[in-house]
Amino acid sequence: MANSNLDTEVSQEEMNKQLDELEGSDRTLFGWMAIIVLIVAVSFSLFHLYTAGIDMLPRMQQNAVHLAFALTLIFLIFPYKKNLGQKRIPWYDMVLAILGASIGIYILVISEELVGKVGNPNTMDTIMSFIALLLVLEATRRVVGKPLVILATVFMLYAWLGDMYLPEFLGSKAILPDVLNHFGFTWKEIAEFMYLSNEGIFGTPITVSAQYVFIFILFGAFLEVTGAGKMFIDLAMSLVGSFKGGPAKAAVVSSGMMGSISGSSVANAVTTGTFTIPLMKKTGFRPKVAGGIEVAASSSGQLLPPVMGAAAFIMADFTGIPYLDIVKSAAIPALLSYTAILFMVHLEASKYNLLGIPRKDLVSPLKIFAGRGYLLLPIIAIIVLLVMRLTPILASFMAIVGAITIALFSYRMQKNFGAGFLVSLLFTGAAYAAHLLFGLNQYVTFVSIGSLLFALIWYAMGKKVKGEKQVKFGFIEFLTALELGAKNALSVVAACASAGILTGVVTMTGLGPILSGLILDLANNQIFLVLLFTMVACIIMGLGLPTTATYIVLAAVMAPALIQLDIPVLAAHLFVFYYGILADDTPPINLPAYATSGIAKSDPVKTGVQGFKFDMGALLLPYAFVLNPILILQDETATWLQIMLSVATAFIGIIAWSTFIQSYLFTKFGWIERILAVAAAVVLLNHSLMTDLIGVGLFAAIIVYQWWKRNREDDSRAGTAEGNV
């Protein structure tokens, strides 16, 4: 990459260690214990590769194996509290790991009898139900943190309290208000419902995790190990690094590219921030600002298709809207959101006159592309396959095959062309033979042939342009990616299992409609008030929760209120999803900020405040697409001209709001510009010809006034300088 970046090189092992420590694990294993963890993690990933590409198990069995692997790994890797510095797995965690595996095995054994188990369990069913419930909560506490465990416990207490009354000496009044009252359930009924039914722990969240999310996270792990993540950063830096605030803009671009396929904002922050934050600091960004920019960019990456922080798949299941339609609808708001962050970064750089990296210190984009551009092909492939309407599961499986083959073939050919070409032919032939003999999907053969052709193209291109060397990829790297994918998925699996408890309670008690009614009554059915109350509730309820769990909770208890106001279903779900992601960046509970502050050497709370500020550029965007569904392609009568006009006015509104947040455009804002900026942004929310003209006019007035104001300041400074001479 840049010459100035040579001292920021960090090994994959160091990044993984830092990520483990941030997520609660400082347990370092050696010898046979490390081998056990490796075997379990690799088996976990291989199981999902098999079910994605060859034969998916029935839903309950797939979920059971998925959760069993995850619980086993969690108790093997994560200690009961941080900073123990353990070098081995304690006996009690070994026992918990075995119990974690047993709850999945038990479901497999009784799978044919499960239909009759709910409502008619035996003693062993009840015992296993309580064990499963406690293990899920403890695993979630270790990996995700206490907030989600507390929330799940509160929900279960609500299910238990139901129609209970206070003792006679306290007045014999109902414990819950009348509006929240329900029939009530015993702890035995709650535990059995959560474990034996497909509405609790094994409900929609864990189903989506087992069928869709894991395989996409594994795809992200292969991209990371093959060097795609580093290539994203290098390519972004070569393209925009020389511009004003270049390293920060490169951080936003590369984090967006990684975040689009990563299921974790923390993993994204560590992966990209390790390289971009030191460069931001070198070009003048304050440490807390450098860390904050990475926080905003990494978290907002979950807005970008195709993965959207795993929410796209859960949203498809909740709403019944096809996955591809959700991805298409989310694309415009996601790009507008990233535009807001980029513009906020530009204003920050302009305000403090922070220049980029000299072009002479940057590697040319052509050299990077000629050397490692083939790493972009799996991402292009997954998009093309999804557009061709392959299922997300099969598309992600094929993309993983593509990532493996293109990395292997390219590296081998560069090392020794003859031997590499032979390896490529043998692999492709083996894939075809496996198709004929064992029924392996024929797409694997097609992908292998495509990888062989592109490897030849990149070999020739690299020779001609003298591109950078390809990243090493062999059997060790293959195992590393499998292990990394399994570990990266643990927080999502734990969050989905606990979120299943929340949705299970909502199903048992009817809590969703109750809360929706309360919000509508409180807001007197006024849409702006409902949106405002929902936004605040989303941010509060999402504090300390991972994005996946936040969305599941909000979709169950908040989205129905919006839908009752005739807001389109997808707009309602995207609304709560956006503010759930903002909650992930809200200090003081802001895990990505703790990740980036460690790299930036800054205060985590101050870093979190900066991250929240840079995310605030798109604060009003969800209001815009709720009030104007054209922005999410939900108006079938809209023409392309109307779509472009809607995008243009939303863009101007975001720019106006960003200038208000930064209090700067060409020079520092006064109270006049700030009032006009807020007015322009708010007026542009209401999509009509009159309000659009007023909003654009107000922002034009800001531009003219700021231009005149800056010129006056320049003339004043010039006059002062002449007077001093």
From TrEMBL:
The chain crosses the membrane at residues 29-51, 63-80, 92-111, 147-166, 201-223, 303-324, 330-347, 368-387, 393-411, 418-437, 443-461, 489-515, 527-545, 552-581, 616-633, 640-663, 675-708. This is TRAP transporter, 4TM/12TM fusion protein. InterPro entries: DctM, TRAP_DctM-Dct_fused. Pfam families: DctM (PF06808). Keywords: Membrane, Transmembrane, Transmembrane helix. Residues 132-438, 470-634 form the TRAP C4-dicarboxylate transport system permease DctM subunit domain.
